Amino acid sequence: MPFPRRFFSTDPATLARALLGQRLVRVLDDGTRLAGLIVETEAYLGPRDRAAHSFGGRRTPRNEAMYGRGGTAYVYFTYGMHYCFNVVAGDEGEPVAVLIRALEPTEGIERMLALRSGSRPRRKALAPAALCRGPANLCQALAIARSLNGIDLTRDPRLFVEQGLSAHGAGVVRTPRIGIDYAGHWAKRLLRFHLHGHPAVSGRRSRASKGA
DNA sequence: ATGACGATTTACT
DNA sequence: GTAAATCGTCATA
Q1: Distance (Å) from CA A158 to C1' B3?
Q2: What SS3 class is residue A116?
């Protein structure tokens, strides 16, 4: 069962934390079901947040979905080649969202591999934990693209969030967000949430967190 | 019409 | 650590 509206209609930092451990499900046109547990998220706080696409109240065709109800999908294209997927938080008119940065793949791994390999031939085989590591990789593995921008995650059969593993609540840590160095002091806010030491979390592997 | 710029990823020195 | 890939979007003119 997809999570209902009230799950999403909260502030983005709370939602970012609540999404950890939950299951993101993608159903392809041919009925194939792909899914993974959310292990890394980032909150974007709206007009006051220098790193948010809605900073200063900016509202354009690209970021229009951010202004929708909580539970709306915000998918955008960036760097000329990548898609990123956000879950809109808050209420209608509040341009706040949570970027989904990484999943632990649980269903449809073979299909995800094919979707990831489609772009370029690879020298090394892709480990399952690497399939959905990073916001753009995740979108490629789940075939999330522009056609899903603006859909209602509480109703759409193609993409939704459902109950995952509550046991994953234990090792949650907060860090600064990634890739927003231009955002001044907002770059330092602890708005990135992830499961500590999880192999599917993006960023450089460190010797210390490798095994844990 | 034009130019600067990414909520990234990958490869290479 | 640094750089390239690659192009839609938006502010400016």
Answers
A1: 38
A2: helix
